[in-house]
Amino acid sequence: MSQLTLRPAEAGDGGPQARRPGPRPGRLRRSLTPYLYLLPTVLLLVALMVLPIVMVVGYSVMDNVITTRSSESVGLDNYVEVVTDPVFHTAIRNTLYFTVVSVLAHLVLGLAFALLLNSAFVGRWAKAIFRAIYVLPWLFTIAVVAVLWRLLLNPNGVVNYLLDVTGFIDGNVEWLADPDTALHAVTFINIWCGYPFFMISLLAGLQGIPKDLYEAARVDGASAFRQFWHVTIPQLKPIIISMALLDFIWTTQQFALIWMTTGGGPINVTEMLSTFTYKLAFSKYEFSMASTSAVIILALSMVLAFFYVRHQKVRD
Amino acid sequence: MDLPNVRRRGLKRTGVYAGLTLGAMFAGLPVLWMALSSFKSNSEIFEYPPRIITDNFSFDAYTTILTDPAKLRFFLNSYVIGLSVVALTLVVAIFAAYAFSRYDFPLKRVLNVVVISVQAVPPITLLIPYFGLMVTLGLYNTYPGLILTYLVFTLPYAIIMMTGYFNTLPKELDEAVKVDGAGPLTALWRILVPISVPGLVSVGLYTFMIAWNEFLFALTLTRTEDMRTVPIGIQLLMGQHSYEWNEMMAMSVLGCVPILVLFLFFQRFFIGGMSAGAVKI
């Protein structure tokens, strides 16, 4: 569909014709050349990735960091305190609910829209127009998404009006301020703005499935559903797994949407690991505790990253 | 084709279009409501019953924003930071991708895994040390502070995408130049880069989008209003005095315009890059 056949899996693969440095003059220089090209990247990653991680791990075992100059090592005390904090438990539960529901809904909606767009009934122009509309939510800055849904979900807003008129609700629901609905509301908003990421990749994947696989299935008398289940899904499986892992990793890190809609409230019902950590640092100025929480989040993310990298390698 | 079959096809077709329309309403109506609200007066925003076009339909909210130097400053900041990040990301990523795509070296596998996995490092983990670092280095509340920060988020996927792109180009191209006695740098800048423009556009668009949309670090690493970016500007509007919903909506529409325009003009590149599946929001 475009010249871009990029996949993370291909990164640094060197292509099938990987070459070895031949025994020729200037061999040392040649073997150093790639490192020279990678020097800016490596310097940046060391300064802005490795060093900060070392720093944050250091902070996490000290007290009074950043705010004072005299901080002492406290061993694992901070870890014990964070891990036993009930709000931290709430944050983990909320982040899990938010992430699992978001990723599943992104996948289902993304797949449904991709299948509709890929349908033989849809002409080229209709497809381009619908695709542009479907991608729309994904193009918006999260800040805008948050403001937009605060307008729509306002107690006096248009969503309440429509639901009231059609009889689904009675009176004005404060979607983002009611402890019973706030977590579902922010999850819904996140679903709304995140599915296009899946849709586009799955659409590209659908277009890449060889037509003769379907012909063969039809010759065998397979129904539309069986074709979907036994041809489409297996063919899309690598994309689905890789998208789902990436989405899972990124959704657990969502901060701006929560911060701008509920700020983690009311009474912590939408507190996520990210907002919990941010508040520790920049509302309570407990930078040591915040660092500890940040290191725990990093460790959890690295577990997910391990599966992602391994999956990418298998795809190689 | 017999009649029932024709009818079944017609039914399926209707079903597909019904599904498409429902989907378009789900995605598009909230956006439409935002745009419509920006033309209302603030007192009409929560009118009961809601109306699509109200009596005081006007561009006042836009005029207010576009004549306020403090708000225009948000846009200037976002553009300066966005464009700088794009330029730096492209240069650094081109070199790195060239090494990954055209050379074999002992640490290649390791570095490759590092580049893929740093994408998973949570921004919140980096936030606290960055805050300390930026204050120490005097980069707190400056452009360079934010630009450097954003490079960390844009570089990994930029390198991955560019390496993939270079891998699709036959290596005979650069070998041919080298036979003429030119060095690898000439091969890169005279041959590979010019024919990689579609890939560069795609990477550049994503880089700009990430920088334009970033919230957490823009919130934490700047302090004064004249250094704030558009997303923070929108948040500030929410806090200010009473809620000026029409202005917030106008600001939101204006804040999305650059990305929407880029998307309309370069849809193909966006879609191509998105299917690369390595793009972070």
Structure write-up:
With 316 residues, chain A is mostly helical. Chain A has one domain (85-315): MetI-like fold (Orthogonal Bundle), CATH 1.10.3720. Chain A has helices spanning 27-60, 77-83, 86-118, 124-139, 142-152, 158-165, 182-207, 211-219, 224-252, 256-261, 273-282, 287-315. The longest helix of chain A is centred in the first third of the chain and has 34 residues, at 27-60. The radius of gyration of chain A is 25 Å and the shape is globular. In chain A, 44% of the residues are buried. Chain B contains 13 helices and no strands. In chain B, helix 12 crosses helix 13. Chain B is 74% helix and 0% strand. Chain B has helices at 3-37, 60-66, 69-102, 108-118, 123-136, 143-167, 172-179, 184-195, 197-213, 216-220, 230-239, 245-265, 267-274. The longest helix of chain B has 35 residues, at 3-37. Chain B is mainly alpha-helical and 281 residues long. Mean pLDDT of chain B is 86; it is low at 277-281. Chains A and B meet through helix 1, helix 3, helix 4, helix 5 and helix 6 of A and helix 1, helix 3, helix 4, helix 5 and helix 6 of B.
According to CATH, the fold-level topology of the largest domain in chain B is MetI-like fold
Can you tell me the overall shape of chain A?
A: globular
* Total number of beta strands of chain B: 0
Percent helix of chain A:
55-70%
Proportion of strand residues of chain A: under 5%
Largest sheet of chain B: none
Rounded radius of gyration of chain A (Å): 25 Å
Instruction: Summarize the largest interface: chains and residue counts.
Output: A-B, 118 and 116 residues
CATH architecture descriptor text of the largest domain in chain B = Orthogonal Bundle
Contiguous runs where pLDDT drops below 50 for at least 5 residues of chain A: 1-23
Q: SSE order of chain B, as H and E?
A: HHHHHHHHHHHHH
Overall mean pLDDT score of chain B? 86
Do you know the CATH architecture of chain A?
Answer: Orthogonal Bundle
Can you identify the CATH superfamily of chain A? Answer: MetI-like
